[in-house]
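[recover] target loaded
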C-alpha cells in the first residue's frame, strides 16, 4: 500500500554528466543479514548492501555492467538479471546450478554483461532457494545518450516494486514445505517498495509516498517482485497509460488497473489530473487456482478506514479483467515475428501429486490425501544438478549431468483442461534439456492443465525475449486457433501469463547460445519442478559462440 501525495513540493535531483558513448558501470553487492522491522517484529533479513529493496541500477542502452557480488550471508546465493538478453554471456545469467554454481558463504563472483537493444524496466533478484523474497531491486535502462523515449518525457520516474513479506525466515518456510511435501505457508503481507503500508499493523510511518504535482505527467515503473503471487495494481481515481513492458515499448493504451505476474514489469504514465488530495495505490492478489490458499491484502480484511482515497480493486478471481488487460498489449512497431518455423513445440504445464514413498513417514506426505506436491512440463519434473551447473557440464563435456531428450510434445495426449485421470498426476523426475540449433525459429504452445488445479502460470524464459502471438482458453486447437495468431504487432515479453485453463503461443529465434532455463515464476512451482531448459548450440564464428567462462566462476 502506498500513497500519492498531490501537494506542491520542492524536489532536488543531481544529475551526473554522461558521455555520449556507452559506459562500463561497476557496482558492489554485499549479501548480508540486516535487521529489518515489519509488522511490529524485527528479523535478520538477507539484503544487498543493507538495503531493502536492494539498490536500483540505472544504466543506458548499450552500457556494460560489472557487479561484484560478495556473499557475507549464511546461505548460498546467485543473482539473476531478469530479462537481460545476456548475448553470449550466459555465465552471467545467474540461476543456481543452471549457468553457475552458487556463490558460497564467504565467496564472491563478478557478473559482467552488456545490455544491448533493450530499454525500459527490468529487475534483478536472487535465484537461489527463496532468497529473492528480500534480495531484489530495479534495473532501469534508459535510451542511449541523445535519444529519447517514444512518449512525452515524464516529469519524474518512480520504481514501484510489489512484493511479499513473511513474518518469519522465508528460507525456513520453503525448507519446511520440502520436508512435509505440503504447500508452503503463504506470506503475511503484500508490500510496495518493501513497505506493507497504512493498512497493516505498525506500518503507517513507512508507507511509500509518491509525490505528483497537478498537471504533470510521471512515469511509474511497476515490477512484480512477489515470490508467488500475481497481483492487481491500481491508483485511486487515476487512469494509467501503458507504454512499455519487460523492457520493450508498447503501443500506448489506457487502463484503470494493471495485472502483473511475478517477474513481469509494466511502465505506465500517470497524470496529475485529479483534485489535490492523497490517493492510495494498492495491490491485491489475483488467485486463479481453486481452493489454493493465498495471502489476503489488508484491504480485503477488516481494517481501519483510511483517510486517503482508496481504489476499487478487482475481485481476487477476476479472470475477465486479467484477459482484457493482457490482450491490450501490442508492440509499438511492426514486429519481426519468425514465420517459417523450424521447431514446433507443445508443452503442458501444471501441478502434480507424488504418492508417498514407502520409506517416508506420514508427516513427510502432507499434500492432499497423503501425497507430496510436485509440478512438471510435459510430464517431466525438472531436477537441478548438484555437483555441476548445466552450462559448465555442457561446455566441459561432463557426462551424466543431463540428457537432451526433453519431449517436444506431451508423452500422452489427453483432455488437458478437462477432468484428468488421477493416473496422470505423478510426473517423472529428470534433468532433461531440449537442444536447439543456432538460428532455429521456434514456436512453443504452452498449455495449462487441470491436474490438481488449473492456474495462471507466469512462464519466464531466460536469455530471450519472445513474441506472444496468441492466448486463449480451453485446449489449444491448431486447426482453429492458428487463425487467432497476431503476426503483425504481437507484444514482446520475457514472461508470459499462461491463462488459467488455457494456453499461450510464443515465438523466438534461437540466436543466443548457451543453456537457458524456462520456468514458472511462482517460486513454489519451480521448487516442485515446473521448469525445463534449452541447450542452444553455438553457431559459426566468434559472434555466434558463447564466451569462455570467467576465471572467478564459482565452483561447486
Amino acid at each position: 500500500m502506498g500513497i500519492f501525495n498531490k501537494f506542491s513540493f520542492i524536489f532536488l535531483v543531481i544529475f551526473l554528466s554522461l558521455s555520449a558513448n556507452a559506459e562500463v558501470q561497476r557496482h558492489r553487492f554485499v549479501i548480508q543479514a540486516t535487521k529489518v522491522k515489519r509488522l511490529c517484529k524485527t528479523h535478520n533479513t538477507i539484503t544487498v548492501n543493507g538495503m531493502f529493496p536492494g539498490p536500483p541500477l540505472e544504466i543506458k542502452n548499450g552500457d556494460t555492467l560489472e557487479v561484484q557480488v560478495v556473499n557475507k550471508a549464511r546461505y548460498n546465493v546467485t543473482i539473476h538479471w531478469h530479462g537481460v538478453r545476456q548475448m553470449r554471456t550466459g555465465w552471467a545469467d545467474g540461476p543456481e546450478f543452471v549457468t553457475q554454481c552458487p556463490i558460497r558463504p564467504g565467496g564472491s563472483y563478478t557478473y559482467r554483461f552488456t545490455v544491448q537493444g533493450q530499454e525500459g524496466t527490468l529487475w534483478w533478484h536472487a535465484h537461489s532457494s527463496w532468497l529473492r523474497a528480500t534480495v531484489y531491486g530495479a534495473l532501469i535502462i534508459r535510451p542511449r545518450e541523445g535519444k529519447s523515449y517514444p512518449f512525452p518525457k515524464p516529469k519524474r520516474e518512480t520504481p514501484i516494486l510489489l512484493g511479499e513479506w513473511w513474518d518469519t525466515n522465508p528460507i525456513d518456510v520453503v525448507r519446511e514445505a520440502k520436508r512435509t511435501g505440503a504447500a508452503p505457508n503463504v506470506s503475511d503481507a503484500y508490500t510496495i517498495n518493501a513497505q506493507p503500508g497504512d493498512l497493516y499493523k505498525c506500518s503507517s510511518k513507512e508507507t511509500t509516498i509518491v509525490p505528483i504535482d497537478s498537471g504533470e505527467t510521471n512515469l511509474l515503473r511497476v515490477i512484480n517482485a512477489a515470490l508467488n503471487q500475481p497481483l492487481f495494481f491500481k491508483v485511486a481515481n487515476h487512469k494509467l497509460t501503458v507504454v512499455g513492458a519487460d523492457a520493450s515499448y508498447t503501443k500506448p493504451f489506457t487502463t484503470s488497473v494493471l495485472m502483473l505476474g511475478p517477474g513481469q514489469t509494466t511502465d505506465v504514465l500517470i497524470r496529475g489530473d485529479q483534485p489535490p488530495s492523497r490517493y492510495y495505490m494498492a495491490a491485491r492478489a489475483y488467485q486463479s487456482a481453486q481452493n489454493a490458499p493465498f495471502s489476503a491484502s489488508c484491504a480485503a480484511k477488516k481494517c481501519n478506514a483510511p483517510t486517503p482515497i482508496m481504489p476499487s480493486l478487482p475481485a481476487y478471481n477476476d479472470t475477465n479483467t486479467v484477459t482484457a488487460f493482457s490482450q491490450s498489449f501490442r508492440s509499438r512497431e511492426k514486429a519481426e515475428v519468425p514465420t517459417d518455423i523450424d521447431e514446433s513445440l507443445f508443452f503442458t504445464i501444471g501441478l502434480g501429486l507424488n504418492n508417498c514413498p514407502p520409506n517416508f513417514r506420514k508427516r513427510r506426505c502432507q499434500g492432499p490425501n497423503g501425497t507430496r506436491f510436485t509440478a512438471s512440463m510435459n510430464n517431466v519434473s525438472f531436477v537441478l544438478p548438484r555437483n555441476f551447473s548445466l552450462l559448465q557440464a555442457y561446455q566441459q563435456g561432463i557426462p551424466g549431468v543431463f540428457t537432451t531428450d526433453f519431449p517436444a510434445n506431451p508423452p500422452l495426449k489427453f483432455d488437458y483442461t478437462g477432468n484428468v485421470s488421477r493416473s496422470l498426476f505423478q510426473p517423472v523426475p529428470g534433468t532433461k534439456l531440449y537442444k536447439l540449433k543456432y538460428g532455429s525459429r521456434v514456436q512453443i504452445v504452452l498449455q495449462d492443465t487441470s491436474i490438481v488445479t488449473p492456474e495462471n502460470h507466469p512462464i519466464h524464459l531466460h536469455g530471450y525475449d519472445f513474441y506472444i502471438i496468441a492466448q486463449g482458453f480451453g485446449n489449444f486447437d491448431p486447426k482453429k486457433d492458428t487463425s487467432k495468431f497476431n503476426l503483425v504487432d504481437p507484444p514482446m515479453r520475457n514472461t508470459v501469463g499462461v491463462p488459467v485453463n488455457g494456453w499461450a503461443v510464443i515465438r523466438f529465434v534461437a540466436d543466443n547460445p548457451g543453456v537457458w532455463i524456462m520456468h514458472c515464476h511462482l517460486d513454489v512451482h519451480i521448487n516442485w519442478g515446473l521448469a525445463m531448459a534449452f541447450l542452444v548450440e553455438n553457431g559459426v564464428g566468434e559472434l555466434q559462440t558463447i564466451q569462455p567462462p570467467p576465471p572467478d566462476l564459482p565452483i561447486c
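[recover] notes: The helical segments are 170-180, 319-326, 390-396, 478-481, 523-528.
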